[in-house]
Design a protein that fits this description.
15 helices; two-stranded antiparallel ribbon; TIM Barrel; 438 residues; alpha/beta
Length: 438
C-alpha cells in the first residue's frame, strides 16, 4: 500500500507568483487577488478537493537585482504588487472546516512578542489549522525597507532564527498552563493568575520580560514549515521544522537531501518521520496525455522568460544583465538563497551561462512542469514518494483556478484508486491531520 500523499496549493497574495507571465492568460483569475471572494471561493474549491492546505509564500522587498532596478519586476508583476497573506486566512477559514493554512512570515523583521500573539490569534480563529513557514529573508531591498543598510549574512540569519524560535516557543508553550483558563461566571475569575507566568529571555538578539498575551490556542505552537536546503538551512530544519519544502530537482538529489535531513533530525533526538517533506511541483493535466500537452502548449504562449529572469536573478543573488548570453557566470559567495545556486550548478554545471538558465525557464520559472493525464501524473507522484522519500507536494499555480480544478478532477481520483490519497479528512488540528493523534 503506497503512503498517503499530502498536497498543498502553493500561492501568494499577488498577481505573478512562480510561473511568470501566466496572469496574462485569458482564463487566469489571479488579478482578482484583492477581492476577498476570490480567496473564499479558492478555499472552498481546495477543501472540496481534499487538499491538505494552502501554502502562502510571501516576500518583503522587491526584485531589483536584475539591472539594479525594480522596473522589470513592476512591469511584469513579478511578485509585486503583493499583499499580506495573513489577512486572508480568517476569511478562508470561515468558509472551510478542514483546510490548513501555511503562511510565510519573515522573522528578521517581526518583533517576536507581537508575532507570537498574531499566530496564536490565527490558531484560535482557524480552530488549530495554522502553520508558519519560517523564513529569514534574502533580499537587500527588504533590509533597506526595514531601515537597515543590508541584510545579515546567510548563516548569521539562521543563528538569529535559532534564538527567535527559542523565544516564541517559550511564549506559546510556557507562559500559560493548559488549565489556567477557568471561565467561571460564578466566581468572576476568567483565568488563574497563579497558572500564568512571565517569560524572561535574555539573549544575544532579543530581550523579553512578558507574559504571552493570548490564552492557549488549539495547537499552541503553529505547525512549523521551513524551506532551507543549504547546509545551514538543513540544520535549522532538522532542529525546528515539522514540514520541509524542497524545490524540484532530480530524484537522486532530492533523496540525498531528504536522507540527510532525516539523519540530522535523529541526531537532534527527534524521530526520522517527525518531518514531512513537501516537494515543489507544477502540474498540467487533462483527460489524456494529448489533452495535457495541448494545454501546456497553450500556457507556454503566455509565459514570460524576461519576468522569470527577474525572479531568478533575485533568488540566486546574481545580476545576469552584467553577462553576455554565453559568458560563464561567477556565482561567487551568494547571500541570497544558497540552495538555489547549488541546485542551478548541479543542473547546468559549474560554468553555467545566461543561455543555459533561459533554456530552463519553462513556463516562466525554473520549475519544469509535469505534463500528462491524471493517471500518468498520479503514477509520477507515487513514484517520487517511493523513490525520494517525500511525503507530499506543494503545487504551484499556473492558470487559476483551472489548474487546481484539473488536479482535483483528473489526478485525485487516480491517487484514491491506488490508495495514495485520502477520501475524507481526519478530525483534529492541522498537526493532528498531518501526523495523527498523539
Amino acid at each position: 500500500m503506497p503512503r498517503q500523499i499530502h498536497v498543498n496549493a502553493f500561492d501568494m497574495n499577488c498577481v505573478g507568483h512562480i510561473q511568470q507571465g501566466l496572469w496574462t492568460h485569458p482564463r487566469d483569475q489571479s488579478m482578482r487577488y484583492t477581492d476577498i471572494h476570490y480567496w473564499t471561493d479558492y478555499a472552498r474549491r481546495l477543501e472540496a478537493g481534499l487538499f491538505d492546505g494552502i501554502f502562502f509564500a510571501d516576500v518583503l522587498g522587491v526584485y531589483d537585482v536584475l539591472g539594479g532596478s525594480p522596473d522589470a519586476a513592476v512591469r511584469h508583476a513579478v511578485q509585486v504588487p503583493v499583499n499580506d497573506p495573513m489577512m486572508l486566512i480568517p476569511a478562508m477559514a470561515a468558509v472551510t472546516e478542514h483546510l490548513g493554512f501555511g503562511v510565510t512570515a519573515n522573522l528578521t523583521y517581526e518583533q517576536p512578542f507581537m508575532f507570537a500573539r498574531r499566530m496564536s490569534t490565527l490558531d484560535h480563529l482557524t480552530k488549530g489549522r495554522i502553520g508558519w513557514n519560517i523564513v529569514t529573508g534574502y533580499l537587500d531591498s527588504a533590509a533597506r525597507a526595514a531601515g537597515f543598510t543590508g541584510q545579515m549574512a546567510h548563516d548569521d540569519r539562521y543563528d538569529m532564527a535559532d534564538e527567535y524560535m527559542q523565544l516564541v516557543r517559550q511564549l506559546w508553550e510556557g507562559s500559560w498552563d493548559s488549565d489556567a483558563v477557568e471561565r467561571n461566571r460564578e466566581t468572576g475569575q476568567y483565568a488563574d493568575p497563579a497558572k500564568v507566568r512571565m517569560i524572561h529571555h535574555q539573549g544575544k538578539q532579543y530581550k523579553v520580560d512578558a507574559m504571552h498575551l493570548s490564552e492557549p490556542s488549539p495547537q499552541r505552537t503553529p505547525v512549523l514549515y521551513q524551506a532551507g536546503a543549504s547546509a545551514r538551512g538543513s540544520r535549522f530544519a532538522a532542529t525546528h521544522a515539522e514540514c520541509v519544502f524542497l524545490n524540484g530537482q532530480s530524484q537522486p538529489a532530492v533523496k540525498k537531501i531528504v536522507e540527510g535531513l532525516r539523519a540530522q533530525a535523529v541526531e537532534q533526538g527527534r524521530r526520522a518521520n517527525a518531518i514531512k517533506v513537501f516537494l515543489g511541483a507544477t502540474i498540467i493535466t487533462g483527460r489524456t496525455d494529448q489533452e495535457a500537452q495541448e494545454k501546456f502548449r497553450d500556457y507556454e504562449r503566455y509565459a514570460s522568460s524576461e519576468a522569470a529572469l527577474v525572479h531568478a536573478a533575485a533568488s540566486l543573488g546574481i545580476d545576469f544583465s552584467k553577462y553576455d548570453i554565453d559568458e560563464p557566470i561567477d556565482t561567487g559567495k551568494s547571500n541570497a538563497i544558497v540552495s538555489n545556486v547549488e541546485a542551478m550548478t548541479r543542473a547546468a554545471g559549474p560554468q553555467w551561462t545566461r543561455r543555459k538558465l533561459l533554456d530552463q525557464l519553462v513556463l516562466g520559472s525554473r520549475q519544469a512542469p509535469w505534463v500528462g493525464s491524471g493517471e500518468a501524473i498520479a503514477g509520477q507522484m507515487i513514484e517520487w514518494c517511493e523513490s525520494a522519500d517525500v511525503d507530499g507536494f506543494n503545487l504551484s499555480r499556473t492558470v487559476v483556478p483551472e489548474c487546481f480544478d484539473d488536479f482535483i478532477t483528473f489526478v485525485v481520483p487516480q491517487l484514491q484508486e491506488r490508495g495514495a490519497f485520502k477520501t475524507g479528512y481526519a478530525s483534529g488540528t492541522l498537526r493532528q491531520k498531518l501526523f495523527g493523534q498523539e
